[in-house]
């Protein structure tokens, strides 16, 4: 296995790892308002997120940007909660393509901006893997491609489940959006409340 393939596998495993499900929750929150028929819009949305995390992943991994990882680990669930809360205000359009684009237009800049924060989280993991390795282009590229492939699989699963629930089981689309988004908010709040850095800031830790 080449170095590129090894880091591609590591990137894929990192974003699909159920033990570190915060990034999975974010992708789910991004896709909650869509089904399989909206796949083109979702590709654009995920691409915006990818651009964001690719920028900070490269900058932080090469040492050009340095941010306290404790803040990043706290901010990531915050980005998930904000994205999921926006879903509650989503208006399911009638049949007009233009109305749907207008209603969901804010999701793209949010995905790009929040991607910047998630990229810093990815970089913390990648820096540990790299250690003192001098050549980082192939590892960085492979890891990023692995992340992207993992994201696309998560997107496909979420959209497929949404299609089954809405089209086959005839669940109202807004009910599905609200239930899934509510679960995501609850799980993200749990991440924040169990975050040691947050507990120290809030004076909740018991010595």
From TrEMBL:
Keyword Transmembrane: yes
Keyword Acetylation tagged: no
Keywords: Membrane, Transmembrane, Transmembrane helix
Classification via InterPro entries: Put_HupE_UreJ
TM region positions: 20-37, 42-65, 71-90, 110-129, 149-169, 176-193
Protein name from the UniProt record: HupE/UreJ family protein
Organism field: Dyadobacter sediminis
């Amino acid at each position: 296995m080449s170095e590129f393939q090894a880091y591609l596998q590591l990137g894929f495993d990192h974003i699909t790892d159920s033990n570190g499900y915060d990034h999975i929750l974010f992708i789910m929150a991004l896709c909650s308002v869509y089904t399989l028929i909206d796949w083109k819009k979702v590709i654009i949305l995920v691409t915006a997120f990818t651009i964001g995390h690719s920028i900070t992943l490269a900058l932080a991994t090469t040492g050009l940007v340095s941010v306290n990882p404790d803040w990043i680990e706290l901010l990531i669930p915050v980005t998930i909660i904000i994205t999921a809360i926006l879903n509650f205000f989503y208006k399911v359009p009638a049949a007009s393509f233009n109305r749907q684009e207008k209603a969901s237009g804010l999701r793209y800049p949010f995905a790009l901006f929040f991607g910047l924060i998630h990229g810093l989280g990815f970089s913390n993991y990648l820096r540990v893997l790299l250690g003192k390795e001098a050549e980082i282009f192939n590892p960085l590229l492979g890891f990023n491609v692995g992340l992207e492939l993992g994201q696309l699989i998560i997107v496909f699963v979420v959209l497929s489940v949404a299609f089954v629930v809405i089209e086959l089981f005839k669940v109202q689309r807004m009910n599905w959006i609200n239930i899934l988004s509510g679960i995501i908010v609850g799980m993200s709040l749990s991440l924040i409340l169990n975050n040691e850095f947050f507990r120290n800031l809030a004076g909740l830790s018991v010595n």
